[in-house]
Every structure is written in C-alpha cells, then in structure tokens.
Give the backbone structure.
Amino acid sequence: MVKLRAEVRLFLALWLEVGAAALVGKPRVDGTTDVGGGAGVDTISHSLSVVQQLEALLLQGNGSDVSLRVETPNADEVKVIQAHSLILTLQSAVFEELLLGRNGSTLVLKESSDCAAVFDKFIRYLYCGDLSVQLDQATALHKLATKYRVMGLQQGVTQYMTQNLARDSPSGHVAGWYEYALQTGDVTLRDSCLQFMAWNLSSLLQSGEWPGISSQLLMSLLQRSDLVLQSEMELFVALEAWISSSQPDGLTAENALRAVRYAMMPPRDLFRLQTQSATLARYQESVRDLLYMSYQFHSASPLHMAKYFDVNCSLFVPRNYLSPLWGSPWVISNPTRDDRSTSFQTQLGPSGHDASKRVTWNALFSPRWLPLSARSMYTETGAMQPTRIEGGRPRVIVTPATSSADFAGVNFQKTVLVMAQQRGQVVVRHVYNFHQSTEENGNFLVEADLYRRTSDYLIDGSLFLHVVVKPLYQSLIVAKN
C-alpha cells in the first residue's frame, strides 16, 4: 500500500478520533457545545467541520494513494476517482481485500452502467456519511452498498425505498424495487413492496410498470384476498391488458386467468366477458369449470349450494372491493374530539340469489377505549351508546342495524382500510380485519397519534377510513350421492 504523506495521516487520525461518529449519526452544527456527563464536563463538537474537510480531501484528491478506475462492461464509460486507502478500508472490508491484492496505484472496478453513474455518490458517502438519493438512483446505490458490504448505507437505502413507495414517478418504480429485492434476498424491502402494491392495486394497474411486471409478481398478487381495488372486473380488464402486452406462454396465461374470482362478478358482467373478451374466448376451455361454478353460485341458494360445494375456496371469497355494494368511505374530522357514528348499506352477499337483499350497518368510531362490558348498548332507535374512557385507544365497531333470518349461513368479515398521506399521495396505510370490533386486532391505529395535527394519518385534519363488509358463506355437511 502506497505510504500516505505525514500531514494526511495526521488529518485522518484526527478524523478517526473526532469525526467518525458523523458517518453514522447526525452531526451537530459546527461549534456547538453540549454540557453533560458530569459537573464541569463539556463536549466541544466540530464534527461537521471535519466532514467538510474530508469532502474537500476527496474532491481535490490531496494525498490520494489510489485511483479508482470505474468501467462499465463494454468499457464505453470510464470514471476515475482519486481516493485514500485508509478511508476505503475503514468503511468496507471488500475494499480492504481489493486494495491488498492490487498491483500498482490503480484499482480497476467493473460496474454496471447504472452503478457507474452513481459511483461518485457512493464514494462520497464513505468519506462524509451522507448522500442525496433520487428514485431512479436507489437500486444502483443499494447494489453498490451490498456489493462492497457497506451495511449502514444498505440499510439506509432500504429505509429510503420503503418510505418512498408512494412517491409519484412517470414510469412507476415499486414493481421494479420488488423484483430487485426478490433477486437480492432483501426480505424487508420485498414484503414492503408487495404489501404496498396489494393495498394500492389500482395505482399499479394504471402505472407504466403494469404491462411489464413478471409472471411471478402477477401470481403473487392474484392469489391474495387482501387486494384493494374497485371490483373484480377491474382486475380482469388489467389482466387482459397484461396478457396482450406480455404475450406469456399458454400455461402462465391459464394460471393467471384461473386466479380471477369470477363468482365475485354479477352474471351480467360474466355474460359480457364471454361474448366480448378476446382473451377469454382464446382460453375459455381452461376456465370453463370456474365460469360454470360461478353461474351456479349466482343461481342457487348459497345454503343449498354449500351442501355440495366448498364455498370457502378462493373463488367465493371477496377481496377488498371499494364498490358501494361492499362498503362505504368514512371521513372523520377532528377524530380525537368525540365519538362518531355512521350508517350504510351493503348487499347481503355476492351471490345473485342475495344481490337484491340489503343489510344496514351501524358503524361507531370512538377515539378512546370501549370496555368489553359496554361494547354495544342500543337505544330504541338502534343507535349505539358507548362508554368512553379517557386515555384509551381508538376503535371501530360495525354491527347490523337489525337481525335477520337471511343471515343464516353467512359470516360477515369487516375490514377497515386506513388511508394516509405519503409523499403527497393518499394511499392505504393499514388494513384491519375483524368480525365486530377492531379491538379484536389489538393494534388498531396504535401508531397513528391522532392528537398530533401533523400525523401522517390525518389528511387536512381528518381521518380517512373505508369500511368494507365481506360476506363469507359457510360450508355445511357435504351431501352424499
């Protein structure tokens, strides 16, 4: 290793003693003094000044003992950076190995074009401990941090990506980040991307990324029951566009089409698909049995059908549909002020046999805990009169206004979608499933801090919810032939 000049070695030693903390923490303003640790003990911090001098050292190349020659695979782009072995080895064990094995003062590094474009930012981070990130640079910076085992930067970029899933971009970025996370084994980023896409599916369907997503991601989404979208028809139309654009093999297209929940479409939509959809006409044989069961589902009594078929299979399980037939939006202004209630109607069930029947629901939001003993007490008008406790947590209760014999064989799952504002976009932040009260979850809005006006969960001072009621038909004893 080339010997550093004495003054550079002295400066770097000072940096190691005083300024290294700035690489992992938030440096205080230059010249501030913290008092603490004991009587008469003061701390004088000039870490920001040290970092600024380190940045100047990198920019000017003073005392450099290694040249980093960054080349793309086709050698059509070359970038040369004058650096210092001590800092590189301090920050990266990979650099330490490369520098020990090099011949001469130049270290040749082969990088992809996207990584080469941000390599100077990456090196600057090693000197200064911070960098600016743009959406289209995040993947490349994560690649470099992973390759050179700079764990602090890797974790920081992962956090940046998970916090910027909602940010608007012309061509979309969440699906691309998911594919990258899947490839590299970043479980945290992978799960965050997949959940965001599932809960904000309409945005993905309308983005530039949708026609090019992988079949693996497509199937991962189609198999989920927590997808948030307007209707199953919206999903079919988008799937038809994906098949037309991607031109997958026959087996992939058939598997995707079989993941559509045709029974959640009314018969009029099924008839239209069978007569107007070119995709369904091409692959109708592969889904004929599903269409047949869907028509049976709509024509027969669910109770009667449940004697012969498993009505709990995915074909008969609703997703989180935003259509008015399935629930209602609910905007609660000043949510910490007092209890609120609302009423709405849904169809008794997705079966055509029940589609004309309506159920009226009463929903109560309480900003404070409601004890089990006072879960729901009704007046003669059917309004719920809760008992509130100061200092409690928020909760939502959803109950039918009246009981009915039609409910036999139907189990109603309630879902509350909680919206939030992220990076200027309104997105679904949380999805809570319960049967009567969000108290069943135990963590409803536990992180929301609704008393703080700047809470991410408040949009213009209001809490935006959407209540979905999902009727699930219960299987009975299977009849014997």
Q: What stands out?
A: The longest helix spans residues 284-299.
